[in-house]
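A note from the maintainers: we've had questions about how concatenated examples are separated. There is no special marker in the raw files; a new sequence line simply starts the next protein. For clarity in this README we add a label.
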Amino acid sequence: MTADFYAYEDLLPEEERKLLLKTRDFMRTEVKPLVNEYWAKGEFPHELVGKFRELGLAGLPYEGYGEHLPATSHLLSGMMAMEMTRTDPSVATFFGVHNGLAMYSIYSGGDQEQRDRWLPSMAAMDKIGAFAMTEPLGGSDVAGGMRTTARREGDAWILNGAKKWIGNATFADLVIVWARDEEDNNVKGFVVEKDSPGFVPVKIENKFAFRIVENAEITLTDVRVPEANRLQGIDSFRDVAEILRATRGGVAWQALGVMIGAYELALDYAKERKQFGRPIARFQLVQDLLVKSLGNITASWGMLVQLARLQDAGIFKDEHSSLAKAFVTSRMREVVAWGREIFGGNGIVLDNDIMRFFTDAEAIYSFEGTREMNTLIVGKAITGQSAFV
């Protein structure tokens, strides 16, 4: 029985559904055989970059910049994020950081010359992107407490500071670095190119979630960036929030993918694992966990379908993506725990996959705005009263 209990995939037009199925096949044949080995090593499988390049799906939904494809719907983009995460959250995050946060920052915050300069090579995955906002001493408070600074000197900017938890940064060709202008105190965005003097990314070791993702701590010491590399459409954190509003919905789709991946693993295991002379799928308590998991999946999927429709209509707001991120990631936590419960002791063994979803879910639960911060955004929208400190 498919996790798509209410046939949401059928909402996609035929051509888009073919792309979704192409993504599904790629993840199962090219990615799945590699992930446990690299998860155990805590390394990124760089050979996948070339295979993603051949897949040719980067650049969605940026009209005019997909190498092989026209712009497509937010529903397809969301389902693609879901589909990748369904196989492995870490590899899906590598693609999401590049195709979402990095490319969208340039697409929405850059001028036409900048879009034309960088997006074609990023859509072809000849250049890989990263997005550097979170800092060692700043997470949820980064909007008002960003410590990385930018100082204008003639036709260049001098960046100083530090960033942390930056996915892809150890090998990215282009890193979108956010810094506070010393003159006007507003946040601005800069495209920092690989090997720029003073730009030093160091891989964060000993993680127990997203082990395949090469998160880095970055130090910036008098990094000189030309004015031509400053995103011309970004004048304040309000502009940055527009980017986060769009990409936060993508994280909710990732959370849905984690739920589906964990549910499918648990369902297959329940059908095969025998106790007391019969498959554990015949036990009422196991069926209860599976049905609750399917309910979380189905409800979350419906919410995200409507979120995609609001995006396509151009009428969605911060609170829409915040509610989706807070709600779906909370449901995700339940589903991965129930899935691991069904596996019993076997669930802690990497070979059975479920623990990879269990631990990776914790990273998704926290990034792109914690549940608490997203709750405050929605709370302000529905009450008209701000509870932010």
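[label: protein 2]
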Amino acid sequence: MHNTQDIQQKLQHLELILRHELMLLIKDSLKATEVAHISMETPLGKVIDYLPQVKLINTDIFTKFMKLDAAYCQLELGLYGLCSDCEMDIEPPRLFADPTEQRCTGCEQKFRREHRHELRLNH
């Protein structure tokens, strides 16, 4: 059983880090006359919707925000810590290392084998 409050705090801390990272990224990429249409207080869904508009859809930060959003949804539904593929428990060390982890080790390895060509193209 997972401690929902601890997980919520970990996810919120990660979200804060990602938002700071995003704000720096946007600040560095915007021209002096442009204004970012998001802030640290913008709801997570609107942040995710904004990323494609500023050409950040194929970036690591977009992936991290999507995983964060999925983890919040899983927590809300009582499904946090279950593999999105086999629905078995994700190993605690994996979740400790990355609280947004979506797959158990076995399914992650299978996913990487099946999608290695696609994964290579993204790097």
